[in-house]
Amino acid sequence: MPTDSLFIVYSQPFPESGGPAVSVVIPAYNSAGPLERALASVNAQTFRDFEIIVVDDGSRQDDSGAALRYLQTNVLPGRVIRQDNAGRAGALNTGIAASSGRYIALLDTEDSWRPEKLARVMAALSANPGIDLLAHDCAITRAGKTIGRHICAADPANARDCLLYEDNPLIPSATVFGKTAALKIGGFRESPDLQSVEDHDFCIRMCEVTGFYFLHEVLCEHQRPPRPSEEEIARHYGNLDTMLSGYYAALYADGAPGAVRKRINRRRASVQRSWAKELLLCGAGAAAGERVRAMNRLDRFDGKNAAVTLWWLLKKITAEK
Hints:
ten-stranded mixed β-sheet
């Protein structure tokens, strides 16, 4: 990010020498409304050794103004930075570069933390030296109501395998990582081909430089976004499949062994299946049919694939009547 595209709206240094233990990085884009709630949840933390870095990524709304007013009113250490729109990865990298804490705690504007979040996370990191990436469970909410729980179910010892062949068990607002480790891998990759999957890619690469720790406590509320459009669905799952395929190609340049090939196909089929389900939910039956066929080409013996195929066929028959 060129320095002439950055404008520091607010800067309040951490009051003690040595800097804070944690830098809370909040990327913001057209989210002035929920941003204040996110900031209030940080201000309510029982652990106070933190600064707040808000990066307004070229919002059309007054995100930087909302953050400025909140931090000034509450005299909170940190920065508010406004930049030309660079996408989520670019905003995160700006926040990491501006931070002075040993650890980076991410918080999306739609989400909020429980008051004990940083205290529990820092205690777990202190008890597990050598771990530079921690994730915890969170409540899934919609319209202010809890509708489920996201659980980090992966085995920390095999986190990379989980990220490559199963799923991404980490939600950004429930993730804390070491700044040095993040810089070692170059931060978040800002390629357009990774839009909406930059967090997943970041965590795969973090496996190369640090261990993981999963704290099985609900310490934040993650707001489920509105149902995406067909275009947004295609971008997310298309980028996810491209990203994973790139890793598989790099890992198995001479061709994957048979058992591994089955595992790769099963994972890629699950991406196509999720893609098809989202398209069916938004009424894009024709596009869903393409994903159903791709899913079955990759793995025709999975019962979950059969169920989605049946769902698509029923939708198709109903639409043709």
